[in-house]
Amino acid sequence: MAAIEVKQVVFSYGSEPDAPKALDGVDLSIEEGSFVALVGHNGSGKSTLAKLLNGLLLPTRGKVEIYGDDTADDAKIYRVRSNVGMVFQNPDNQMIASIVEDDIAFGPENLGIEREEIVRRVEWALDKVGMLEHRKGTPFKMSGGQKQRLAIAGVLAIKPRVIVFDESTAMLDPRGRAEVMQVAHELNRNEKITVIHITHYMDEALQADRVVVLDRGKILCDGTPHEVFAQAELLREAGLALPAVRQLAQCLADAGVPIRTDIVDEQELIEALCPLL
Amino acid sequence: MSVVVTDLTYTYSRKTAYEKTALRGVNLRIETGEFVGIIGHTGSGKSTFIQHLNGLILPQSGSVQVLDIALTQKKCPKADLRRLRGSVGMVFQYPEYQLFAETVEKDVAFGPKNMGLSDDEVRSRTEEAIRLVGLDYDAIRAKAPFDLSGGQKRRVAIAGILAMRPQILVLDEPSAGLDPAGKEQILSLICKLKRECSPTVIVISHDIDEIVRVADRLVVFDRGGILYDEPMGSLFTHAAELRAAGLDIPRAVRIADALRERGVALEGDILHDGDLFAAILRRYQNAHGLPIDAEQAVERARALGIGRIAELAEDGV
Fold first, then answer.
1. In this complex, do A256 and B283 lie within 8 Å of one another by their Cβ atoms?
2. Which is more confident, A171 or A87?
3. A201-230 confidence digits (pLDDT tens)
4. Which of A110, B182, B230, B246 sits at a 20 to 30 Å CA gap from A2?
């Protein structure tokens, strides 16, 4: 079943007819339960697409449907927003309360959910991101990785079926990045939440089931990480780097070493090199 | 000598419940002309350390000497602080958030203007700085900084620092948040600035694979102290030590180690992907021969982002 259907979407930030198009004819269907990485250079339209997925932006032309609900339909927008949670780049911009549990409760409170259920959800959400012991703590004293996990918990408390991570790892150190990625994968695996992960880190894209590459508002390629990263020339034209190991394998092959070029991880590279050297 | 730091200790919120010691007896000397890479986990003290270098934080105990200006616990003369801030260019994380003026030119001119320079001097330095960061002065000077792309904004922010002609350039995570191409361009730019305008460069990064491609010396901060400080070239002999301390080691070192364990000992010092690539090619060539020239292949790989940072392309915007 498709969680998300993006149909022939065009989007411009300006209203005049010749305004540049941030998205220019995007068709994308995302299966429930999948983990999709969305990559592309700065200005390729990734974040615009993310904001279209929960109706923060509405398509200039075309249609976005979340479990069949059209995001442009006023009567459906609340259901769309509670189905699609967003986690943004800067953890400091997503905290509103001075105590962790109050912050997590903000979403469900606004949905008018009764108190006992809110308490249950806050506890569940904090547990899922490994932050339950900090429930009485204050977000402002926490590390970037911890703050981002709280932002995820805040979204979880609304019980979304889809979470969009819009460069949520970009401002974190390697430890924080690893924490957030682990939580994202656990939610996908254990809670069956569909994950759309927007990132500039190719090693994070490698961990997804599917990689979608955007370039100047269009989908340039779409497939498993192995399929997508096999297309070296195409990615370079889109201003994207190959994952480091993949690039190394490519350069070796170009120099005449008979090595597979679809290698993306270190262990694979080591296995492939041993018999050759 | 550019920087001499002796027994530097710093504690935040002293004598309160939130007391936290960020630096414990740090000693560090940086010579003029060095390119130092600083690495450390969040909370290791590296940001507190660099804020001492232009007097944003004055030492609580110990001393900091930067160029000819000495900073101690005692109040530092205002004139010295002003001179220091002109001499040490500080590019903070996400420097584009500090852009504020209505045009690129005004923003870049802010620093030199505040140094009390003549209008002509301010104008010529502004133009020079904008060109240095690889932007087209005439095309961009009148634009609003907010209309630029992320990578361009960051360049404008760096130009604002360069316009003060600092003798020491300090950059905190200069490539954070940029796409892969933007990252590569910023790193190339920093290498170019090192060559052309600021003799001493200090870069903070979380990414050892990035630092190993640009810096000549590696300093690792850990829990408020310096855990490791060696020329970059000797990193591979200390890999086990760094790994034991829970720190990342460069990918190339990791792969070379794993190959050695499997009985494939590559020759030469392997630090970054470029070294690894060259060593694998040499070994394969000796055993089987290669259809193309190995040195040429290494140069081509460098242009693709493997190995030390390649020269900034002329149109590198």
1. no
2. A87
3. 998 999 999 999 999 999 999 999 989 998
4. A110
Residue B224, pLDDT > 70, answer yes
Tell me if A173 and B206 make a contact (CB, 8 A cut-off).
yes
Residues 62-101 of A with CB under 8 A from B: 89
Q: Distance between CA B98 and CA B76 in Å, rounded?
A: 26
Across the interface, whether the CB atoms of B292 and A256 are under 8 A apart is answered yes
Q: Which residues of chain B are within 8 Å of residue A244 when distances are taken between CB atoms?
A: 209, 251, 273
* Segment B84-102, tens digit of pLDDT: 999 999 999 999 999 999 9
Q: What are the residue ranges of helices labelled H in A143-231?
A: 144-156, 174-190, 202-205, 225-229
**A134: amino acid identity, one letter:** H
| Side chain identity at residue B136, one-letter code | D
Nearest one of B210, B298, B196 to B252, comparing CA atoms: B210
Q: Quote the CA–CA distance of A107 and A95 in Å, as a whole number.
A: 12
User: Of A42, A144, A251, which has the smallest distance from its Cβ to B297's Cβ?
Assistant: A251
Judged by DSSP in three states, B222 sits in strand
**Interchain contact, A251 vs B43, CB within 8 Å:** no
> What is the side-by-side strand order in the sheet with B69-71?
B20-30, B3-12, B61-66, B69-71
A234 pLDDT more than 50:
yes
Q: B301 vs A251: CB contact, 8 Å cut-off?
A: yes
Residue B70 tokens read as: 């000495």
The percent of residues in chain A predicted with pLDDT above 70, rounded, is 100
pLDDT at A265: 87
Question: For A145-164, what is the mean pLDDT?
Answer: 94
B248: chain A residues, CB-CB within 8 Å? 174
Rounded to 5, what percent of chain B is helix, strand, coil? 45, 20, 35
Question: Is A48:A216 a contact under the CB 8 Å cutoff?
Answer: no
Query: What's this model's pTM, rounded to 2 decimal places?
Result: 0.87
Measure CB to CB from residue B181 to each of A173, A176, A239 and give the nearest one.
A239
